[in-house]
Records
---
Amino acid sequence: MSTREPPEPSGVDSPISDPVSFASLPLPSLLLAGIAGSPGYALGPTWVVDVERAGVVHRAISRQLIPDEIERFARAVEQTAADLREVVATSRVGRAEISILEAYILMVCDPTLKEKVQSRIRSERKCAEWSLDIEIRELSLALRGSENTYLAERSRDIEFVGQRILRVLTGKAAGISLPEGPTPYILVAHDLSPAETSGLTKGRVLAIVTEVGTRTSHTAILARALDIPAVVGVGEILSKINPGEFALVDGSRGVVALRPTEQAIATAKLRDERYQAVASGLWRRRSQPATTACGVAVQLNANIELPTEAPLALEKGAQGIGLYRTEFLYLDRPDLPSEDEQYQTYARVLETMAPLTVTLRTFDIGGDKLASAFALPSTLNPALGLRAVRLGLERPELFLTQLRAMVRASAHGRARILLPMITATQEFRRVRLLLDQAIREVDDAGQPRAVSIPLGMMVEVPSAAILAHVFAREAEFLSIGTNDLVQYTLAVDRGNRELAKLASFFDPAVLQLIAGVVHAGEKWSRGVAVCGTMASDPLAAILLLGMGLRELSMEASAIATVKETVSRVSIAEAVAAWERCAMLGDAQAVEAELAMLFAPRISDLLGRDFE
Ligand code: PEP
Ligand code: MG
């Protein structure tokens, strides 16, 4: 189970406190399985918000009224942007979430959308609401039909933006209105926009349940930031729920019980008590060093996407940044970040973390992360296409700009540069030459930099893992990206929910590749880390220790749990576990073996049951 990070979980917010009897409810209990979006438990009345979406007026307008209607639409756009700016200014959520809202403001103000709607009002004489609705539908449909999961996900964003403007046009209040009074509710919706979610408070909202979404969708990210339990992607629920009806939400396991039984409530209460106790214990120990039960130090770093996550990572006990996904500076914007903007952004992270190490990964654009300024052609198989370092080498002027910015930023702390998706030694060598050029240019310009900037590579493609002993001679450090390594080794799209069961990092093929990389690192005295999701799983972390890894990088919120796990296991035990697991033939057997060996000892830290 991943942990929440409340300063101290308070009894007031603990939702499992109401001994309500459900025995007399007429409808049977219904259990719905979704995705664990944000950990924690809640029991309470539901409030269905999806029915509140703004309706669309279909009104034809006369020729004389066209200028007024165009003006009315322009005002609504301005008002919507102003409202969203207000949410940004007053919101309690972090920078990562704010940037989602800022992207919405850009969408609202997008001149193309405005021109299209206004031209429809002019040519078809449809009212502003109607014209906007048509444009939004067309845009959203085009995006939804995209093969690209990132673009398909953006279709919901454009719908939210449309709803937001529509609400202003129709005079309906934006955001979610809960019933008057102090009673907190479990919010149930088809989906929630970041603007809607960020306005929620833990005191009024016990939990969030949405029909759509994944662990990385905006609702889940925001719910975690707000410390509100959430289950997303439960599928159809709105039609199965009567407003006000009680529900039990288990955000740690991703389960929702409508009209829960007495027994389900009792079990959830016990789990909630355990959860609260573990969360507060972990929080208290967050700044202690990570060492195994036998006293071996383990480096636990954070993965970040935005500079403002750096202080949060420190707060959560990170000993450095093991992966800074710099591509996020390029996403959700029409232009490219300049060298200076990049330099300042990276320098800020380095200064925040100094003297700890920051691993700056060069842009991993392509695949499912699209930056419109790169104008990449759409391909049938983007994960195998022009992506990451391949793209950098294809557009060397853009790559050099980023490398120069990184070299300059190195003057502000302890930087190292990490290359994503290296598949062949030639690629690594070509980047090395580009980095040398960037260093020369920075020196020629008389700009300061660190004397040494280690250059390492991600091992996230089977070819790189198989040839790790060759790469380890050239790269100064290696970082294993298990998310992509699993995807490419097992031929399973990492974004495909239906295939998620096949994509296990416990798969023996993946484990053998990792072991080979560790061995290559030892042979050439190169540091090897794991920075994929595998590092944040307690059982997998033990296995990685047993394979010889001493550096793990993960979502900052997982650090406390992994630190605690590590402290309960000795290296000798972890090595013995890896020796047993190395003999096994499938992922399930490996996981079961680890669970048999360690689950009883770390059951409070696991987000899943092994019964
Ligand atoms: C990975 O592939 O495991 C990784 C850490 O990189 P990303 O998730 O950014 O692709
Ligand atoms: Mg990757």
---
Amino acid sequence: MRDFTRSCVYQIYIKSFCDSNGDGIGDIPGITGKLDYIKSLGVDYIWITPFFRSPLNDNGYDVSDYRSIDPVFGTMEQLETLIAESDKRGIGLMLDMVFNHTSTEHEWFKRALAGEEKYINYYKFVDGEPDSPPTNWESKFGGNAWEYVPSLKKWYLHLFDVSQADLNWDNPEVREELKDILRFWTAKGIKGFRFDVINLVSKPDVLENDTEGDGRRFYTDGPRIHEYLKELVEGGGIADMLTVGEMSSTTIDNCIRYSDPAEKELSMCFSFHHLKVDYANGDKWTLMRPDFGKLKKLLTDWQIGMQEGGGWNAVFWCNHDQPRAVSRFGDDKRYRKESAKMLAGMIHLLRGTPYIFQGEEIGTTNAGFTDISQYRDVESLNYYEIMLRNGKTREEALAVLAAKSRDNGRTPMQWTGGRNAGFTDGEPWIGIPENHTYINTEEASEDPDSILAFYKKLIALRKEYHIIADGSFEPIETSDNIFAYRRKLGTQTLTVVCNLTGEKTDIGSIPEGELLIGNYKNEQNGMLEPYEFRAYLK
Ligand code: GLC
Ligand code: CA
């Protein structure tokens, strides 16, 4: 396995990155046109969310052909140009493989519906009667996770939308197909992969009702998951590539196995527990201030657990499924710059490979939508209805969406202060926050003190100081308002202190060493300014 500890990955949500042909939807040539900007950040890899042929019910996470490109995003030739141009700049492209399910528009599913036995076995079909689904499992996008097909007298499993049918990984033919798809893309020069909800693919042999929850305990990190991952990585010929698994509701022990090089599974894992600290009673569709005590404990437990077990974390705040970190954990009004930089420093100096989601590097905020017609995301639209059915008023449901909707992370990249933020010459597929007039890459590039400049510095420091990639992690005891930790390598120590609040806070004794990076021009006194972040090297 190669060593990816010094790498930094930039995530592109293609639909919202840059539109080259005025149809309001971001595309492949749009990315190619922005490679110099991406290169200027200093990142090593770009992960692009799915651009495969798709009905786009879930913006490409519903693939109908894994080997072709959806015309809305471009052509194979344009992708080949993007690969070549990225290569020239020393940037590797990572694709997003959605292997838990296919779109119901996929050829395999259509042939299954037509009654072909071979393809019925590609999916999780179960015989049954129209009024009683095989189990009470819930779809992650709301409602029961089974759909009845009268012509087959069978139910099929969909852990996500009804248009996303779960594949049957217990069928060796399915596993062969998936390996072959990986080989197809690596032959084109793809350098890494992100695997969508990969820890959900191994389903239990016996299907039973969940009397305690939504069913996830039966299929999360399922019975043969480690075996299947080893087979996929070896057979797909991707053991030396950067691979990251999106791990839903997982455990530290499983993530150690997924990412320990000796296991020959993946290079690293995304886990999400630290992003559920603003879910009241575990329910995402609620309003709650983040619990910083819980956040600190989760980050610390994962840092220590993965370190002790020989695993490797992907560290991140943002992606296309999350609200914007500066709005969620910082203060996107009074202290937008300070809190965005603090959050960046806090995560980039942890033990793990940092991921930056498009726009995070300029402090992009939540969307600020106030009407249901502004939302596009299937999950948000489903849950809006569910919240209304459960008795919330429209205003209440909209307030929850404004804080929690995935669309907060999906508004177009803000390139300029001008029309449509420089994203498109046409009508953007989703609205653009008003604040693009002053939050945009053009403005940030001119300001040496910008959030953007701070991200560049953090990425450069990782390359220069090996303690950031290689050092061990130790927490420092503090109040809930502060997160502090040490990294150690040989005789060196890196001490990081972050003020998680908008209040001046006492740090007690000042760490020893030289200030390596901070978000204030401070005088090393014992007080941290609102959202102040400092890292000292000794
Ligand atoms: C992952 C993706 C998300 C998608 C889901 C189903 O969580 O990140 O965007 O909706 O899987 O594929
Ligand atoms: Ca376009």
---
Amino acid sequence: MEPLTEHPPTFLDILNRPLRSLRLSVTDRCNLRCQYCMPEEEYVWLPRKGILTLEEASRLVDIFAELGVTKVRLTGGEPLVRRDLSALVGMIARNPRIEDLAITTNGLLLAESAKALYDAGLHRVTVSLDTLRPDRFMALTRKDSHAKVLNGIKAAQRAGFKGLKIDSVIMRGVNDDELVDLLEFGRQIDAEVRFIEYMDVGGATHWSMEKVVSRAEMLEALTRQYGRIEPVASAGWAPADQFILPDGTVFGIVASTTTPFCRTCDRSRLTADGTWYLCLYAQRGTDLRTPLRAGASKAELISLIVSGWTKRSDRGAEERHELRFREVLVSAEGLRQDPRLEMHTRGG
Ligand code: SAM
Ligand code: SF4
Ligand code: SF4
């Protein structure tokens, strides 16, 4: 680590949003095939030699941290299929500027890795789990591994992780009858459940507006069960709106499809091959790997990132929301031509 400058600067984009949060995809490979993310039979993968080493990824994170990033979320693909992930966690956790280091995982490999991740300094875990029914899990993900996810969740809690979150993408006719069950499950295990609207991101080649269950519909269904639900006041930068049930249970809804929140988006994304995207919906990114491998100085990389962020005007989900006819974002053929457009490459 190079010595810290006293106060990290705040770089604002054109819409006055600070560069504060980085989603770091550590691999584009995944051990599930969720219907809303990887519904196709075949995928084009990022070439292996282009994948950043752990040291390269950590160097870039350090540079982002110098520029004001305090929150890093490890993602994928499935981040736990990346070998030696806890070594990367250790490198990032050593950076005192990173106040929040989290992972989003499907949980399949969590039982084996939770302790090492905790010991390496990971702060928080979010497990994606859309159903409590093993047969439905199999239909949704093409893998008979529901029990492994539940074991993974238990192992994470045993390892010492507090404030576990469960993310559930809700699709009409698929799992929209499980809102209450998922909330009850969260309550039982002391985890906050966040319902996510089905998004028309790259990779969601089976998306249609009819399959989206809106935040309003979710709240209506939950109100029928629990009575009055109140919103929780928030600092305004988190993607999930929080709500509270009459008994004090807090849950979240990420309503990117029907109520986008681009105006408060402080996030950017780095793919496993070092391409930096300013928005989940962006068509083009900035290649940071080539200059990194060509020996660019820290100042040169900083200048590249600052110049990208200060020109940022992206508001992808809002623009999608303004469309009169909303169809699949990128065709399967388009995704084959540029796999970086995939949600599983960008990390969600
Ligand atoms: N594999 C890990 C996992 O599933 O947690 C991390 C990567 S995954 C791309 C990150 C998040 O994106 C997951 O919570 C997943 O449910 C969400 N996601 C993927 N496709 C989505 C879609 N079409 N709409 C909404 N959320 C989606
Ligand atoms: Fe499912 Fe995550 Fe894999 Fe996508 S990346 S298929 S959401 S487990
Ligand atoms: Fe941020 Fe883009 Fe998502 Fe809007 S669509 S919240 S700008 S990443």
